[in-house]
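SEVERITY: medium
COMPONENT: batch folding queue
REPORTER: lab tech (J.R.)

DESCRIPTION
The queue accepted two submissions in a row. Attaching both inputs and their returned structure tokens so the on-call engineer can compare them side by side.

ATTACHMENT 1
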Amino acid sequence: MAGQGLSTDEIQGIREALAAGRKPRVVFTEAAGQMAGQLGQVVELTDPAASEEFVVVRFGRDELPFSPADVAIAPKGAGRRPAAEAKPEPEPEPEQASAPPEPEFVLDTPRVPAPRREEPKAEQPAAESKPAKRAAKAAKPKTPPGLTVTLAYAEGEWTVAAQQGTKALARPYVVKPAEALRMVALVDVPGVQEAVEQILAAERAEAEQQAEKLRAELAEIEARLAELREAR
């Protein structure tokens, strides 16, 4: 049966063995789930302060981190086949005289690998669930910083600016009211387009008042000019 995890003295012993160039053998405990009872080799001890899974174990072709509770020191001789059970090599059969081989016709086709014997599928996902989660976590791509585009109105001018994270991509620059209205039309948010139309309506009314004032001043100037012409 698998042990109950590594003690402080055993971890220190593993650290000394790694420093001497050895890779201690360990057995997975019940805390490792379906991997319990299988053997591995410790190849590194990382910083325990950074993660509780600081025991890096080589299992097959993978090197994955585990906590001290997931593994225990493997008993001596574990995983080795006793000499008494070693299968004797078959004795070579005496050569027999045979007729000369006939020419063979060989069709060069891809070699089909023999079916590999696997464990029941019901147990395999459970045994690989913990390494699969670590692999998925390590393969997660880095998310780029967010992009912010700002349309602003102040002191009678519309401006647009762009920023990605803390980096300014475009400093605020002035756009025409018609362009600002087209940009707002793309944003289907209740109340936003109405607010922009109110601002444009106020600007339009102010412009009309200024135009009326200028027309009145122009009319006065033209009347004065007409009087001067008649005085000749």
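ATTACHMENT 2
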Amino acid sequence: MTTDPTLIAAAAAIRAGSKSFAAASRLFDRHTRESATLLYAWCRHCDDVVDGQQLGHAGPEAPVQAPAERLLELERKTRAALAGEPTAEPPFAALGEVVRRHAIPARHALEHLAGFRMDVEGRRYATLSDTLDYAYHVAGVVGIMMAQIMGVRDPAVLDRACDLGLAFQLTNMARDIVEDAEAGRVYLPGAWLDEAGIPQAEVADPRHRARLAPLAARLVDAAEPFYLSAATGIAHLPPRSAWAIASARHIYRAIGLEVKRRGPGAWDGRVSTSSARKLAFVLSGGVSVLGRFGRRSPPPRPAYSRPG
């Protein structure tokens, strides 16, 4: 059992912040699991600081600083951690350690923060391409960093890791449309909302649920090519990492399909997967790895090119 305070804090963050990721991460070998946990702790902390939350939930007190000021502080501390400066704050110590261990380019962490800046500045997304740009910064680049933790350096495989991050984020967007809109954030393409006759300011209004459900289904459908593309990349990971990521892929994809199945009722309660279904997906993830996703000709990548 580890006595490293940074790792202990990071492990606590992942247990409280994401049951799905925590379940899949148990399949990693110890060193990969530790690094993935360290990266998650920093990502979770950044998300919470910008939102004024704790582990994805409202904190006991409202933050004093405005979101823009909190983001600037995050950027300052992140740059210091990337430069190897010592810190007593566990999330930034975690980032510094994982970047050092795996030679992760500093630009990826900064690209992730750029996604939070889009939220802070209230960016609107006119087209699906715009939505994917946001998804890249908050999730696609995290997929790239995770793949680098697993030893991937081939740009083509990193592209597929990015695709999985995009698929996860599109799924999350579909599941959380109403919750996000209540917080003033709308990631649905504006063109889609215009077609459906839903004003951006009224996305969370229950009166629009019947017209909103097909838009959520469109997001779920948009994620499918990215899930398919990602399967090719999984075949190039070490076996235990492949099992973990294949399981996460099954779990998150199922969440999106459930949102689509429920239609207007998708937002009556948060869509999730039961422990029994998670176990089933872990088993099916193992089977898919044994079959090695990549034996077939790799599918073409969806029409998205990551920066750089």
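NOTES FROM REPORTER
Residues 140 and 162 are 4 Å apart (CA to CA).
No errors were logged for either attachment.
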